[in-house]
């Protein structure tokens, strides 16, 4: 009888936990539906040669979203309009942090370390 009561109690807790998870998931979906998303796209080039750079990490400083540029230096991702800064990093180049409003013609120039 004790085992049956314990099993029933355990199942009740499990069912309650599942309900709590689904409620919080619904709240999360509702919150994300209210957040406006924007597409950020551009091109990373070397500041001296003006050549496109492949494999550059472009990340959102506020939320950690990150992508890498393609062979032609292009990148594209979606982020919340609340995010304001991009961080650009590449081996042997200065790490660059800039506001989304500082991107001119969707091109970002980065400097080599000397």
Give a quick precis of the structure.
With 114 residues, the protein is an alpha+beta fold. It has one helix at 2-34, and strands at residues 37-46, 57-60, 66-68, 74-80, 85-89, 96-99, 107-110.
The oligomeric state of the chains shown is single chain
CATH class of the largest domain: Mainly Beta
Please name the CATH topology of the largest domain: Immunoglobulin-like
Question: Structural class, please?
Answer: alpha+beta
Superfamily (CATH H level) name of the largest domain? Carboxypeptidase-like, regulatory domain
If you had to describe this structure to a student in words, what would you say it looks like?
By secondary structure, this protein is α+β, with helices and mostly antiparallel strands. It has two domains: 34 residues; 74 residues, Carboxypeptidase-like, regulatory domain (Immunoglobulin-like). Helix content is 29%, strand content 32%. 10% of the residues are buried.
């Amino acid at each position: 009888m004790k085992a049956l009561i314990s099993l029933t109690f355990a199942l009740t807790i499990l069912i309650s936990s599942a309900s709590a998870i689904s409620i919080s998931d619904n709240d999360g979906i509702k919150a994300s539906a209210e957040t406006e998303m924007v597409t950020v796209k551009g091109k990373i080039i070397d500041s001296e040669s003006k050549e496109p750079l492949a494999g550059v990490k472009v990340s959102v400083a506020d939320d950690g979203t990150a992508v890498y540029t393609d062979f032609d230096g292009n990148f594209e991702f979606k982020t919340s309009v609340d995010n304001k800064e991009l961080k650009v990093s590449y081996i042997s180049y200065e790490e660059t942090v800039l506001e989304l409003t500082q991107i001119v013609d969707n091109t970002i120039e980065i400097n080599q370390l000397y």
